[in-house]
Design a protein that fits this description.
Elements lengths: L1 E4 L12 E4 L16 E9 L27 E11 L9 E7 L3 E4 L6 E2 L16 H14 L6 E4 L7 H10 L3 E6 L2 H9 L5 E4 L6 H8 L4 E6 L3 H10 E9 L19 H4 L3 E4 L9 H13 L7 E5 L4 H10 L5 E5 L4
Parallel strand pairs: 8-9, 8-11, 9-10, 11-12, 12-13, 14-15
Antiparallel strand pairs: 1-2, 3-4, 3-6, 3-15, 4-5, 5-7
């Protein structure tokens, strides 16, 4: 079984833009004569917001290539090596990296995969807290925002795979943290499980500028940007002098044919705000240090993580589309196989 992109998407993506098809019997061996190639059995697949952009044809190339209609969708996943001609990867090892939305994948660039060094931790965590989203939260908050103890931090899409960790990293730094989310259930999760100082349901707020003034009467030092649009406009009005905006994602824009324009940009000048985007794979050389640090946080009970797990590759299209509708609570994971 595998999941294909049926055609390029304009506007709102739907499950019908993808197709689940049966696969013929697969030879679980590296093709004869192939060097530095591995065959993977895919166990857990990651649904991530950036994947929507790859479903659209871009005239100007983006930071990741577009998907190809009729071909398997590609995303981060946790897998087991079932055959290898690469000296660094042995049969039976667990790895994570960019793999296909299919039961088995032939990988010709295994140097882009990371080994799972802590299989005692739930393997699904390597799609999230110990994978790309977790490392994204770490890089964005620590390397880009450069936080100081006592600063005021706002996180949008705070109950998602990245946001829930940004808030916890901020609390470990001694910051004051408020998050926004799209349901009361998620708001309670932020306050009662992830330890945010406060949180609000943006769908119940008629004036985001006034909302942010209520939660941040002295202004915002660090905004971890995951949504864009009206939230970013309101944040710009509420930033403090020399504030930092970490541009991680803008999920409110991904299904729009024409992206929204942003007002209040002059606040960047008036308040001397630094707004910086980043792409996590620029920092992958430091991943293993992050893995060791975060494993100790997990084992020490200093951070926690919530996953929204869907069973079965056939349910992957629904799980991915659910991200853009806010259906998921926590990191969206698809289980292909638990072994």
């Amino acid at each position: 079984m595998k999941v294909l992109l049926k055609h390029y998407v304009t506007g709102k993506a739907a499950e019908s833009d993808m197709e689940v098809v049966a696969t013929e019997a697969v030879e679980l061996k590296v093709p004869e004569g192939s060097k530095d190639v591995i065959v993977l059995k895919n166990l857990y697949l990651s649904c991530d917001p950036y994947m929507r952009s790859r479903m659209t044809k871009h005239d100007t190339p983006s930071y990741v290539p577009d998907f190809v209609p009729g071909e398997v969708i590609i995303g981060y996943g946790v897998s087991k090596v079932v055959d290898s001609t690469h000296q660094d990867f042995k049969v039976g090892e667990l790895v994570w990296g960019m793999t296909g939305w299919e039961e088995y994948s032939l990988i010709s660039n295994p140097q882009n995969f990371f080994k799972v060094n802590h299989p005692e931790i739930p393997l699904s965590h390597y799609t999230g807290i110990l994978g790309m989203p977790g490392f994204t939260a770490h890089v964005g908050f620590h390397a880009i925002a450069a936080p100081k103890q006592g600063e005021y931090v706002f996180v949008s899409a705070a109950a998602g795979a990245v946001g829930q960790l940004v808030g916890q990293f901020a609390k470990l730094m001694g910051c004051y943290v408020v998050g926004s989310a799209g349901s009361d259930e998620k708001v309670e999760l932020l306050k009662n499980k992830f330890g945010f100082d406060d949180a609000f349901n943006y769908k119940k707020e008629s004036n985001l500028n006034q909302t942010l003034q209520r939660f941040f009467p002295e202004g915002i030092d660090i905004y971890f940007e995951n949504v864009g649009g009206a939230t970013l406009e309101a944040v710009l009005q509420n930033m403090r002098l020399h504030g930092r905006i970490v541009a991680c994602g803008m999920i409110s824009q991904y299904n729009l044919v024409e992206p929204e324009g942003i007002r209040n940009l002059f606040q960047i000048v008036a308040k001397r705000i630094r707004m910086e985007g980043f792409v996590v794979f620029d920092y992958f050389a430091n991943y293993y240090k992050f893995e060791e640090m975060t494993v100790q946080y997990i084992k020490g009970g200093k951070i926690t993580y919530v996953e929204d797990i869907v069973e079965g590759l056939e349910n992957a299209p629904s799980a991915l589309i659910g991200l853009y509708e806010g259906r998921n609570v926590g990191k969206q994971v698809v289980v292909v196989s638990r072994e």
